[in-house]
Automatic annotation (TrEMBL):
<keyword id="KW-0808">Transferase</keyword>
<dbReference type="InterPro" id="IPR017932">
    <property type="entry name" value="GATase_2_dom"/>
</dbReference>
<dbReference type="InterPro" id="IPR029055">
    <property type="entry name" value="Ntn_hydrolases_N"/>
</dbReference>
<protein>
    <submittedName>
        <fullName>N-methylglutamate synthase subunit A</fullName>
    </submittedName>
</protein>
<keyword id="KW-0315">Glutamine amidotransferase</keyword>
<dbReference type="Pfam" id="PF13522">
    <property type="entry name" value="GATase_6"/>
</dbReference>
<feature type="domain" description="Glutamine amidotransferase type-2">
    <location>
        <begin position="2"/>
        <end position="299"/>
    </location>
</feature>
Length: 301
């Protein structure tokens, strides 16, 4: 059992409050996932030719300044960076593939949690409230955010096994449920060039969507294919640079509720996670249909 929550802002005036609005939603899912928690927030975009990476190292006192200096001097890269608890966010003028290759060779213990122009992923082992406080969630700004609280059932309680999972540029996924065909799909996707960091079935779902998007699918087309190719029980919430989506499997045994106002769209495993949102008493509230996906997207810059 896990808890998932998401908030997509339609009103830009609320972007400075997204962390404040989202924090109680994440904490409300503690009973569904006390082992670990995490969230992906979209905002603070970098420009064309730049990428933003969320990086983590197992040593809490890792010298991020030294890594930044090496990238500047050895690779002649423009960059800026800041640290947020156990992670560092690097904004670099570079090609993704070349930078990934350099990090794999020169800093193999550094884990890449996300890459894109907008996304930052922050996750750790522990209670959701602790994770929210650790990363100062309440002060964050952005356009949309998705989160997850985990109760481990099929693998160990680790940071690597916590959600969200990202396998492509500005793409991430949180998942409540289990996939029955993830081992076969993982092998297929590896042959297609998709790489994985864990044995978690949810990461396979994220990798599948990355693959479909790389083949030219729109987000809606990728989700249509996912309904055909993913077997098991699942409720997904997906984030992209421009969008937010929710999808349920044909049996729909994993709970989910959606709420929409003129200002936002919100999703949660349980309605009680939505009760602190402004105007929720006047929202359109419904249960997502089985074998159905819902997508909200803004125009790309």
């Amino acid at each position: 059992m896990c808890g998932i929550v998401g908030l997509y802002l339609k009103n830009p005036e609320l972007e400075s409050r997204i962390g404040e609005l989202f924090k109680p939603m994440l904490i409300a899912m503690t009973d569904r996932g006390p082992d670990s928690a995490g969230f992906a927030i979209y905002g603070d975009e970098v420009g064309e030719g730049w990428i933003k990476l969320t990086l983590r190292h197992p040593e809490t006192d890792y010298d991020w300044e030294a890594l930044a200096t090496r990238l500047k001097t050895e690779q002649q890269l423009e960059l800026s960076w800041f640290q947020n608890a156990s992670v560092a966010v690097f904004k670099v003028r570079a090609e993704e593939a070349a930078l990934r290759e350099w990090l794999a060779e020169e800093a193999p213990d550094v884990l890449i949690l996300s890459v894109g122009q907008s996304i930052e992923i922050l996750k750790e082992v522990g209670l959701p409230e602790k994770i929210a406080e650790t990363f100062s969630l309440e002060r964050m700004k952005g356009s949309h955010i998705i989160g997850h609280t985990r109760m481990a059932t099929e693998s160990a309680v680790t940071m690597e096994g916590s959600h969200p999972f990202s396998t492509g540029m500005d793409l991430c996924l949180v998942h409540n449920g289990s996939l029955s065909n993830h081992n076969r799909l993982r092998d297929t996707l590896k042959r297609e060039g998709i790489s994985f960091e864990t044995q978690n079935d949810s990461e396979v779902a994220a990798g599948y969507l990355t693959w479909r998007l790389q083949k030219g699918d729109s987000l809606k087309e990728a989700l249509e294919h996912a309904l055909e190719d993913l077997d098991g029980f699942f409720t997904f919430t997906i984030g992209t640079r421009d969008g937010f989506a929710v999808m349920r499997d044909p049996i729909a045994c994993k709970p989910a509720v959606l709420a929409e106002t003129d200002d936002y769209v919100a999703m949660a495993s349980e309605y009680q996670a939505l009760t602190t949102l402004p105007g929720i008493e006047n929202a359109r509230v419904w249960e997502p249909e089985p074998a159905t996906f819902y997508v909200w997207e803004r125009s790309s810059n």
